[in-house]
Amino acid sequence: MAEPDHGDDDELLFAEEEPERIPAADEVSLSPWKILIVDDDSEVHAITRVVMGDVLFEGRPMVFLSAHSASEARALLRAHDDVAAILLDVVMETDDAGLKLVRFIREELGDHQVRIILRTGQPGQAPERQVIVDYDINDYKAKSELTAQKLFTATVAALRSYQHISTIEHGRRGLERIVDASLTLFERRTRDAFLDGVMTHVAALFQHAQGTLLCTAGPDGAGVPLAVTGSGVFAGLDGRPLADALDAGALDADALDAVAQAFAERGGRHGPDWSVLLFRARSGAPGALYVQGHRPLDETDRRLIALFCTTVAIGFDNIHLYERLQEAQRATVHALGKLAEYKDEVTGDHVRRIGRWATLVARELQARGSFPDAADEQFCDQIGLASMLHDVGKVGIPDSILRKPGALDPDELRVMREHAGMGARILREAAGMVGGRNYLSLGAEIAESHHEKFDGTGYPQGLKGDAIPLSGRIVAVADVYDALLHRRPYKHAWDRGAVLDLIRREAGRHFDPRVVDAFLDVVAAEEAPAAP
């Protein structure tokens, strides 16, 4: 069926009517709405600006970008990712240039927020029903029906829709950041690492802020607020009273008052370009984050920030509980170490030296990337203390065997070798009460495996190669090295060079060659003269 003749269809027709105006504000501080006009007729651009140029929506004006072809529009859309609405012609350099641009916007750019109003002077080439079904557009207008009032109504409706979608998307992204912050912060196991994580996520929530300052209310939650850590303009204030930041000019008096009031009123505060976020952990004095130089926050922003503060408070409590658990484990390790020392007078200094060597070797292996799955940060933090338990099973060995000045006979040797399994059982049972990876579980692993040999001839299980836990392979080298260097009831101390030669020869037989290589480098570094 032939389409009706509308005369010059490329011309926008505006009736003699005055559209209702949203009241203008004397001063507008919010950023304008960006409207992209895509049409090959220059008059369309001019008339649209005349009709809509002084309209305000939600107190914000409109700014218009112009493209006279789909290719120009592509370039503008790549340069401006905050276009709110597009007034798009269909027929330009080709009969379907506008429709192809819709595909580009939705599929290639992945922009599903911008509202697209399709305007056509030739409806027959882009039938409304087909276009609405096949293309992700938000309105369809024939130019012949677009009065000034209808253009105003369609544009404001598109902006309102864009605003709602943007709010939802902003909230969704904010929630994703909060969830991500929760997951990553709760993985932090030290207070310093947790604080670094908090500052990183605050920077993500307040993009382009000038500075962030984390502070506490002072001892027992009273007194002059103290800076814990800072970034941006507040970098370098760690551990200093906020009054110092005031004196140094990094913080003004109003900001200091805002922080003090937040602590006094036990609630966050917000200004036009600053915020004080308060979080109250059960495990200590309240803390506050002062953020300076950010964009104005809406209600969604403030709710997300309140949720983030709750996450931070829970994280601080978790860190406190984890630290208390670690302290309890360390106390247990020291108690068990003392028990082994009581049985064997040479054990005390020996286990402390082994702990030091084990830590250094583990760090060296981590730096080399030799065992990325095993030598992680937790392993390196724990192995030194856990290695002190390697001989705890000796508490069950008779003194007559432990302190015998000469070589052990076969029966005595069999009894002595039982200390590895005995120590592992004691520690594993205790570790089970704690759960997860901990000092005691690693100590059990070391106690059981540090007498295994790389070639499979060790005890108690005859494990071979990588079947021996890395902790056991590290402590095996450190144990032999320290034992040979020092006098025992049944032997004299060896020369250091002779001990190192033995360790080199035993690489691949008694010891893991990779661990030996790292150990030798650590020893060389320890013996190297200090730089002047």
- Spatial sequence of strands, sheet with the most strands: 2-1-3-4-5
What is the fold-level CATH name, i.e. the topology of the largest domain? Hypothetical protein af1432
Strand percentage, roughly?
Answer: 5-15%
Shape: elongated
Tally of discrete structural domains: 3
CATH class of the largest domain: Mainly Alpha
Unreliable runs: 1-29
Helix content: 40-55%
CATH superfamily of the largest domain: Hypothetical protein af1432
The number of E-state strands comes to: 10
Domain HD-GYP: 325-532
Protein name: DUF3369 domain-containing protein
Domain Response regulatory: 34-158
Modified residues (4-aspartylphosphate): 89
Q: If you had to describe this structure to a student in words, what would you say it looks like?
A:
The protein has helices spanning 42-52, 70-79, 97-108, 128-134, 148-185, 191-205, 242-247, 253-265, 299-343, 347-368, 377-387, 399-402, 410-432, 439-449, 470-485, 496-505, 513-527; strands spanning 33-38, 62-67, 83-89, 115-120, 139-142, 211-216, 226-232, 269-270, 274-279, 287-292. It folds into three domains: 33-169, Response regulator (Rossmann fold, 3-Layer(aba) Sandwich); 186-318, GAF domain (Beta-Lactamase); 344-527, Orthogonal Bundle (Hypothetical protein af1432). It contains 17 helices and ten strands. α1 (42-52) links the parallel β1 and β2. The strands form two sheets. It has a five-stranded parallel beta sheet with strand order 2-1-3-4-5, with helices on both faces. Strands 7-6-10-9-8 form a five-stranded antiparallel beta sheet, sandwiched between helices. The longest helix has 45 residues, at 299-343. By secondary structure, the protein is of the alpha/beta class. α15 runs antiparallel to α16.
